[in-house]
Design goal:
Distance between the termini of chain B: 59 Å
CATH topology of the largest domain in chain A: Rossmann fold
Strand order of the largest sheet of chain A: 7-11-6-1-4-5-12
Distance between the termini of chain A: 52 Å
Structural class of chain B: alpha/beta
Number of strands of chain B: 15
Number of strands of chain A: 18
Oligomer: heterodimer
Radius of gyration of chain B: 21 Å
Radius of gyration of chain A: 21 Å
CATH class of chain B: Alpha Beta
CATH superfamily of the largest domain in chain A: HUPs
Order of helices and strands of chain B: EEEEEHEHEHEHEEEEHEEEH
Number of helices of chain A: 9
Number of helices of chain B: 6
Order of helices and strands of chain A: EEEHEHEHEHEEEEEEEEHEHEHEHEH
Number of domains of chain B: 1
CATH topology of chain B: Rossmann fold
CATH architecture of chain B: 3-Layer(aba) Sandwich
Largest sheet of chain B: 9 strands, mixed
C-alpha cells in the first residue's frame, strides 16, 4: 500500500492551494494513505487548514524557528528524517517545491520526477517535456521511494470537510546555517493571486509599452481577475517577471483566461492548457492563440478592451 | 576563486520537437543543437564575475557524447578559460549529472557552481539542487541577481510571489533564471583565440560515479489538443458567449 507524504506550502500563516492539489494527485493512487507535513516556526494555524483537506489521514508538524521561511537546505534534512515512513514524497511544482524536492531526492539517493500531470499507478506518471511539445510516461522503480513535484494546474484542489489528526513529529537533525533568508519583495498587491484566481487576464507584446499595459490591470480589476503576461511582454519590460505565464513562468488553470494581444507561442500555451475557457483578443487572425481559444475575437485590443469594460 | 559552469547540449530552442509516430521518443535526428539557453546565461554571469575581479577562472563542463565538445568550444569562445567534457554515450538523468559534477567539485574546488535553472529538453529543474545536496552546500535557485562579496553571495531569486533574496556562504551552487543577464555574442577573433584553450576529456566510467538513472521513459505522446472554438464578430457577441457559459 502506498503511504504518501505531502509537503505543505504556506506563506504568512496561509496554506497554499497547491497543497490540496497535491492531495488530489495522491488520491489518484489506489488505496493510498495521505499525510501532510507542515514545517514552520508556528505550524498550528497551517496544520489546522491542512487537516481540513478531504482525504488526509494525518498532519505532522515540525516546529522550528529556522523553518520560518522555506529554505531548501534547511527543510530537506527534516523531511528526510521522516521520509522512511513513506513510499512517496510529493511537493507542488511551485518555485518552493521545485527548489526543495530535488534536494530531498538527492539526500535519499533517488531520482526525482518533475511536474507530474497524471498518476497512472503508484509508480507510473505522466509529465511534459520540451516545453509541453511531448508528454512522456515515466516509470519509477518499485523498490524505491518516489519523490516528485506535482503540476498543480493539472489537478482540482481536494475538497474540505476533512478531519485529520494533527501531531508533532520528533525530528532531531542538525540544520545548516550557511543559507540565510534576507527578504521577500512581494508583487501583485491586492489583486487575486495569479495561480489561484478564478479569472486571469494576460497581456502580450501588442500592448507596446508599460504605460499601455495599465489597460490590462484596469480590465483585470473590472473582472476581479489576476494579471498575467506573456514572456514577450515581460522581456520588453511591460510587466514584472512574476507575472509571466508559460512553461518557464507560471502554469495556471483558471476558469476563464483572457489573452489580450498575445500571439500564443508554445511556451505560453503550455502554461494555460488546463484553463477552463480561453478567450483570445488579437488583431492578427492568424495568431496561434486562436487555435486553442474557445472564444476568439479578431480586433484591435485598444478598441475592444475599453468596449468590453464599458459593457460590463 | 574558480567558477564551474555546466553546459548541456540540447535541441535548439527554435526547433519545434515532434513525437515519433510509434511513441518511442521524440524525433531529434539531424536537428540543430545548441547550449541550453539557461546555461548560456549561467556562463555569462560567471564571465561577468571574473571580469569584475570576483573570480579568477571559469571552467565549462559538459556531460555527453563527443559532439558536446561543440558546446564546450562555444563556451570557450564566449570567454571561459578551459573546458572539461565528461564523455558518455547514453543520455543521463539529473541525479547522475549531479554526482558527476560533485566529483568535479571535489577535484577543482570551485567557489561557485553556476547552472541553468532547467534544461529545455527534459524541463526537469533538478541538477543544481541535487548537486548542492550531495556536496552539502547552499543552493540559490532561479537567480535574477547575483552579488559576490568575499565569502558570501547575495542572490535574488524569482519566486512565485515575487523576489526573494538569500545570503549564502561560499562554496555554493546557483541556478539561473532567464532575466539574470543577456549573454554576449561571440566574435570571430574569440573563436580563433578559443582554439588554443585547454580542453580535457574524462570518461564518465572512469569517475567511479554510481548511476542515478532510475527512471524509465516508457512512452511518448503529443500533448492533448484543445478543441478550436468559435470566433465571434464583435464585443457584444463575445460578452453574450461568456454570459452563456456563466462566466460573467
Amino acid at each position: 500500500m502506498s503511504k504518501i507524504l505531502i509537503i505543505a506550502e504556506h506563506l504568512n500563516g496561509q496554506l497554499n492551494q497547491s497543497t490540496a492539489k497535491c492531495v488530489s494527485c495522491a488520491s489518484k493512487i489506489a488505496g493510498a494513505s495521505i499525510d501532510i507535513v507542515v514545517l514552520a516556526a508556528d505550524p498550528a494555524p497551517i496544520a489546522a487548514q491542512a487537516a481540513a483537506i478531504a482525504g488526509v489521514s494525518r498532519v505532522r508538524t515540525i516546529a522550528n524557528a529556522a523553518n520560518a521561511n522555506a529554505i531548501a537546505a534547511i527543510y530537506a534534512p527534516q523531511v528526510v528524517a521522516i521520509a522512511s515512513d513513506y513510499t512517496h514524497v510529493f511537493g507542488a511544482s511551485t518555485t518552493v517545491g521545485k527548489d526543495l524536492m530535488p534536494r530531498i531526492a538527492a539526500l535519499l539517493g533517488v531520482s526525482q520526477l518533475s511536474d507530474i500531470m497524471a498518476a497512472d499507478d503508484a509508480h507510473t506518471f505522466k509529465r511534459p517535456i520540451y516545453a509541453g511539445n511531448a508528454i512522456v510516461t515515466v516509470k519509477a522503480p518499485a523498490g524505491q521511494i518516489v519523490v516528485a513535484t506535482v503540476r498543480a494546474a493539472s489537478f482540482a484542489a481536494a475538497g474540505g470537510g476533512g478531519n485529520a489528526t494533527i501531531e508533532a513529529a520528533a525530528v532531531a537533525v542538525a540544520l545548516p546555517t550557511h543559507t540565510r533568508y534576507v527578504n521577500l519583495q512581494q508583487g501583485g498587491g491586492d489583486r487575486p493571486d495569479l495561480q489561484t484566481a478564478r479569472i486571469v487576464v494576460s497581456g502580450g507584446r501588442a500592448l507596446g509599452s508599460a504605460d499601455a499595459f495599465k489597460l490590462i490591470y484596469d480590465f483585470a480589476d473590472k473582472l476581479k481577475a489576476g494579471v498575467g503576461a506573456s514572456r514577450a511582454a515581460v522581456d520588453s519590460g511591460y510587466a514584472p517577471n512574476d507575472m509571466q505565464v508559460g512553461q518557464t513562468g507560471k502554469i495556471i488553470a483558471p476558469e476563464l483566461y483572457v489573452a489580450v494581444g498575445i500571439s500564443g507561442a508554445i511556451q505560453h500555451l503550455t502554461g494555460i492548457k488546463d484553463a477552463g475557457t480561453i478567450v483570445a483578443i488579437n488583431k492578427d487572425a492568424e495568431a496561434p492563440i486562436f487555435e486553442v481559444a474557445d472564444i476568439g475575437l479578431v480586433a484591435d485590443l485598444f478598441k475592444a478592451v475599453p468596449e468590453i469594460m464599458a459593457a460590463l | 576563486m574558480k567558477i564551474l559552469v555546466g553546459l548541456k547540449r540540447v535541441v535548439d530552442y527554435t526547433v519545434r520537437v515532434q513525437v515519433k509516430p510509434d511513441g518511442s521518443g521524440v524525433a531529434i535526428d539531424g536537428v540543430k543543437m545548441s547550449i541550453n539557453p539557461f546555461d548560456e546565461i549561467a556562463l555569462e554571469e560567471a564571465l561577468r564575475l571574473r571580469e569584475a575581479g570576483k573570480a579568477t577562472e571559469v571552467i565549462v563542463v559538459s556531460i555527453g557524447q563527443q559532439t558536446s565538445m561543440q558546446q564546450i568550444d562555444t563556451g570557450l569562445a564566449m570567454g571561459a578559460n578551459r573546458g572539461i567534457l565528461v564523455k558518455t554515450d547514453k543520455p543521463i538523468q539529473p541525479l547522475t549529472a549531479a554526482r558527476v559534477l560533485a566529483k568535479l567539485v571535489e577535484k577543482e574546488q570551485p567557489g561557485l557552481v553556476i547552472l541553468g535553472k532547467q534544461a529545455i529538453d527534459d524541463d526537469n529543474s533538478q541538477t543544481a539542487q541535487m548537486l548542492a545536496a550531495l556536496i552539502d552546500r547552499p543552493q540559490a535557485t532561479f537567480a535574477s541577481k547575483v552579488e559576490v562579496d568575499g565569502n558570501v553571495a547575495r542572490v535574488t531569486r524569482e519566486v512565485d510571489v515575487g523576489l526573494e533574496t538569500l545570503e549564502v556562504d561560499l562554496p555554493a551552487v546557483i541556478s539561473v533564471d532567464l532575466r539574470l543577464n543577456t549573454p554576449r555574442f561571440i566574435k570571430l577573433p574569440d573563436i580563433m583565440k578559443a582554439k588554443a584553450k585547454p580542453r580535457e576529456t574524462l570518461e564518465l566510467a572512469s569517475l567511479g560515479v554510481e548511476s542515478g538513472d532510475h527512471l524509465a521513459a516508457t512512452h511518448y505522446a503529443p500533448p492533448a489538443k484543445r478543441q478550436k472554438g468559435v470566433v465571434v464578430k464583435d464585443v457584444p457577441e463575445l460578452i453574450g458567449a461568456l454570459k452563456a457559459k456563466g462566466l460573467l
